[in-house]
Structure formats: structure tokens, C-alpha cells
Amino acid sequence: MAEHLAASLRTVPGETPAERVARGKAARRDVPRSSHAEYRPSATRFDPVDVLESQSATRVPELVPIRYGRMTESPFRFYRGAAAIMAADLAGTPSSGIRAQLCGDAHMLNFRLLASPERRLLFDINDFDETLPGPWEWDVKRLAASLVIAGRANDFTDAERADIVQTTVRSYREAMIRFAGMRNLDVWYARIDEDRLQAVSGEELAKRGRKRLTRAMAKAKTRDGLQVFDKLTERVDGQARIAADPPLLVPLADLLPDVERSVLEGEFRQLIERYGRTLASDRRTLLADHRLADVARKVVGVGSVGTRCWIILLLGRDGEDPLFLQAKEADTSVLAAHVGASEYENQGERVVSGQRLMQAASDIFLGWERVDGIDGRRRDFYVRQLRDWKGIAEPELMVPDGMRVFGEICGSTLARAHARSGDRIAIAGYLGQSDAFDRALVTFAESYADQNERDHQALVAAVRDGRVTAAATEPA
Predict the structure, then answer these.
(1) Which three-class secondary structure state does DSSP give residue 284?
(2) Separation between Cα atoms, residue 381 and residue 304, nearest integer Å
(3) Do the domain assignments include residue 255?
(4) Which residues touch 394 (CB under 8 Å, ≥6 apart)?
(5) Residue 63 to residue 249: CA distance in whole angstroms
(6) DSSP secondary structure string, 251-277?
(7) Burial 88-104 (b: 16+ CB within 10 A, else e)
(8) Which residue, 151, 38, 42, is CA-closest to 447?
(9) How far is the C-alpha of 324 from the C-alpha of 309, rounded, in Å?
């Protein structure tokens, strides 16, 4: 296993495409594609609640119960917050020895509709908090298991779940083979936009599914900075301020009522100025054309609850020209203990670099900064727009055919992301034309869904026994 994890992320200098294919095929001898079906927890497997508590130790104490509350709601909600648990489990599974930049948390809800800088709607990966180079199989396995867990929640049959996973993995494999035959620049320019989504829906979805997709794309375009401005702000003495909704949304002035507002705003102005230096020069100019209006701490997601996350309201031309930024704490990736530390000293830069490498097009305000927190501790952050078109799947509303098509699109999207960084030709050579890997992941995903259910119940029991405290909140 160690020699596989130490393998190079990039191609071997001077290798021909034929030699790269041969290297991928040769890896099958040591790690057969069928071996990826394996998942057997050892008798000495770690306590999953210990892993969660270890993460909680560095988080905002009063927010940790919200995280546990969200994770106890269902096995799927638990899975969304259990990337660290699965990373530890994946470290004991077979590895082809071929690496790529990983998302690190490639469950199905981290694939969504997003805006490109050219104002086109794209389908892409969204969350890169855990991104690091590692075995490409890990992202595929996390995606496959998430589909099984969501399918079980919807009472899909064994056969329906198997079809969804096999279709998803086949889509990844076939897309990787296509990318292996493409020029480097063509791989870099590849993307799934709204026209491609409409074409796929026309080919594979029933009329009801096509209508639902059309509505979802139209809704995504309304979920922008103006919409979040209307939702999250109020007028105070004629000025736009972020409206308090504790504990999920707390303005900075409420968190530190004894500190003068001018002092707090001065510190955040400096933060914004320093972060702006990580942007391209044209985007620094755009950022500089906005002034600070307000700051608040916001609870986001499931797995991220308890990490420090600030939303920053900036205003442009006038009081009706908002720009909302989100500054989110970036800690060491949950993958690092298993694949090695990041080459970046700043964890925010790690997130930004991984995101830019894997996404077809990234937010124009994506950058990073290191700051001294209000508690005196130094932390890394990455910054992006809070919302710039956003369409997220609703798995509980999906029928088997809809989830199968969604998985198919996710599979090809993930392959494109891996093809930009890893040796796509060697990965394609390893996967080959047969469905051996596809079928193996059907078995793996079901086995890991069983493990996830056991871990979910362990957290439920920990809450019941008073080991950890959970708080009920609005859904993430």
C-alpha cells in the first residue's frame, strides 16, 4: 500500500501514451479491478465518535451540538459529515497506485449547478475543503456510497441501487477513456453546461424529469447575490445590515458587543485588502470598488458546522449593489494523515489551488488569507462569493431513473476533474473496456453503506447516553 500512495501524481517524463496505458494495465496485476469490491472493517477499527470528537476539539464549542444534531437526523446526513471517518477506512482499501487531485468529499450533494465567470450555468463539483492529491479511487468510492445511502433512504430496491452505482461508475470509466484520447488543452476546456444537461435530459429522462431539471436550472439563476441580500439583510438607521438569526447567523457586533464597531470594521478591511492580493489584478480592481458594510458568523453545511465561517457584506455603486463574500476556515485535510501533507503551508491556499485545478471554471473572487482570530489564534481561510447561482440536488425527490441520470453526470464530471491533474491515460488503461471496476464498486458501495449506518447509530447512541450533546436546528 505504501508504495502505491507514494506514486507520482503527474506523468513520468518522456513516457509515450502507449507506455502510460501499459503502466495502467500493469497495475491490475498487483491490484485487480475486482479487488475494489473489498470493504471489511478490522476487529480493531477506530470508534467513529472518537473521530468526530477529535474534529470538534478545534471548533467553536457552542456550535458543535448543531453539527451532531444534523448528523443524527439520518444516515445520509451523517455521511455528509463523516469524510474523516471514510478517509480512515479508505486508507485500508486497495489502491491502483495512480494519483490525482481529489475533492476529498465527493458525495452526491457536492455536485451541483454553478455559475461560470462568463455567466453560463455549469454542472461541477462544489466543495473542496478536503482536497489533496491521492488515489483517484477514493473520490469514486465516496460518490458511489453516497448514491446507495440516498437510494436506501428512498426505498429503492437492491437492483435499482446497483443500476445507479454501476451506471455512475461506468460513466466515470468511459469519460476517462474519452479524455485519455484527447489533447491536453481539450481536456482543460471540457465542461458540462446547461445545453449539455438539457441534451442528456432529453435523451434519458421522462417528461416529468425534464421539466424538473428545467425548473431547477431557472431557479439556480435566481439564487444570486441580490437574492441573498434580500434574504439576510435588514435596514438599520437607513443602512444595510446583516439580520441576526442566532445561533445560525450572528453579526460580528453581537458576538463582540464591547468592541467598537469601527475597530472591528478596520480589522476586516485589512483582511479583505490582504486577501485581495491573492486575486488576479483585474479582480483586485473590482474588489476595491466595494466598501465594507457588515460582517457576521454563519453556520454552513453539515460536516463544516463548528468551523469558523464569516459572511462579509460589501456594497458597490450604492446601497442596492451588494457583494456577499464567504470567508471559511480551512484546516488540515482529513486526507492528510493517509496520503501525506499538503505542499501548501496555508490551508486556504490548498483549498483554492485544488478547486482551481478540479473545477472547469471557478468563482472570480476565490482567494485565501491567514488571520489572527478574535480569540488570538492564527487560522487559515479561503474566500469566495457566498452565492453566485446555486442549484443543489434534492435526492429525497428522486426516482430511480432520475438518480441514475444524476449519477451518470456526476461520474463524467468527476472523471474530467481527475483528468486535469492525474495521469488520465494510465487511469484509463487501468480501468479498461470491461465493467470489472463498475461491478466491484456496486459491492463496495453497499458494504460501506452498511458501515455508515452502524456509525450513524453509534452517534445516535452517544447522544442518547450523554457522551455528546446534539441540538436541533433548521435543515442544512
Answers:
(1) helix
(2) 13
(3) yes
(4) none
(5) 11
(6) EHHHHSTTS-HHHHHHHHHHHHHHHHT
(7) bbbbebbbbbbbbbbbb
(8) 38
(9) 13
> For 189-271, where are the E strands, in sequence order?
192-193, 233-236, 239-242, 249-251
132-165 pLDDT, tens digit each: 999 999 999 999 999 999 999 999 999 999 999 9
Query: Angle, nearest 10°, between helix axes 136-153 and 436-464?
Result: 60
- The pLDDT tens digits for 189-217 are 999 999 988 888 778 888 888 888 889 99
| Run of H or E including 368 | strand 367-372
Residue whose entry in the numeric block shows the C-alpha cell 444534531: 69
Q: What is the mean pLDDT of the chain?
A: 93
Cell of 71: 448528523
Kindly state whether residues 213 and 234 are assigned to the same domain.
Answer: no
Among 385, 411, 434, the domain-final residue is 385
C-beta separation of 137 from 95 below 8 A: yes
- Contact between residue 368 and residue 381 where contact means Cβ atoms under 8 Å apart: yes
350-380 per-position pLDDT tens digit = 999 999 999 999 999 999 999 887 677 899 9
Amino acid present at 197: L
Q: Which three cell numbers stand for residue 54?
A: 477529535
Residue 257, preceding peptide bond in cis (omega within 30° of 0):
no
> What is the rounded distance in angstroms from the CA atom of residue 295 to the CA atom of residue 260?
14
Is 244 in a helix, a strand, or coil? coil
Q: Which domain holds residue 95?
A: 2-220+395-464
Q: For strand 132-135 and strand 99-102, is the pairing parallel, antiparallel, or unpaired? A: antiparallel
Please give the tally of structural domains in the chain.
Answer: 2
Predicted TM-score (pTM) of the model is 0.94
